[in-house]
Amino acid sequence: MPDSVAPGDSSVSAETPSGKDAAYENFPVGSFLLPRHLRPHIANFYRFARAIDDIADSADLSPEEKVARLDGFERTVLGQHPDSEAYATGHRMRDSLTACGITTQHCVDLLAAFKQDAIKSRYRDWDDLMGYCIRSAAPVGRYLIDLHGGSRDGFGPADALCNALQVINHLQDCRDDYLTLDRIYLPMDWLDAEGVNVTELANDRSSAALRHVLDRTINATAELMVEARRLPAGLRSRRLAMESAAIIRIADRLLARLRRQDPLSDRVALNKPEYLLCCAGGVFAGLWR
User: For the stretch 6-45, what's the b/e string if a residue is b when 16 or more beta carbons lie within 10 angstroms of its beta carbon?
Assistant: First the structure.
């Protein structure tokens, strides 16, 4: 693939597929719990988010080229690339948003986060990290709420859940993120307070000091989950309430796993029976909310 894609070049895709799909995620994407007629729109949103995330994570593109391609996706979603097949996924996303009457802002926020990923690799403190998550994760929950008719509690509980899921993912991948992308999503002031050199993230086992930082991050994420647990009760869609209840259970289990296991030693994840149990629990919680 060429290093750059001209705005009007329809001969080559702007995408850089990583091979990751919905099976890679910690949470169900467009699962059977959600209304059948909305699943194609959710699939479009996931493909869009996956495409722009892959660009930001590409090892073959310079930061400048990543930002240029993400700018192209932004112009496409905003209707400023009417003839460019290089951004076909963006065109499908715009068509889906138009059909559902949903704002483009959720997609624009995601793009802003991934442009930031292209040029920023450290976060000075927890608030700085949350500022990133509110653009990289919260738009997913906001989109789903808008698609399913809203929430009586606004976006707050969904933001908390999505931000928590993002940090959980960063904790799971902290070693790989550092080794492959030189990115660190642990607050730098917490690392500094424990005297942890970032090179420790390349080790195959956490030191006692790094373990303190991981635990502090887990504790802060657990506080987000307190607000997140309000989400299902406020949703107007019972099906989305079921799905969100399942995701809350998945997040709680992953946090418990991260407290016991070392993400530098192994990929911390749920097995299939645990995952299905969380989904079943979400169904019952949604039915009895």
Answer: ebeeeeebbbbeeeeeeeeebbbbbbebbeeebeebbebb
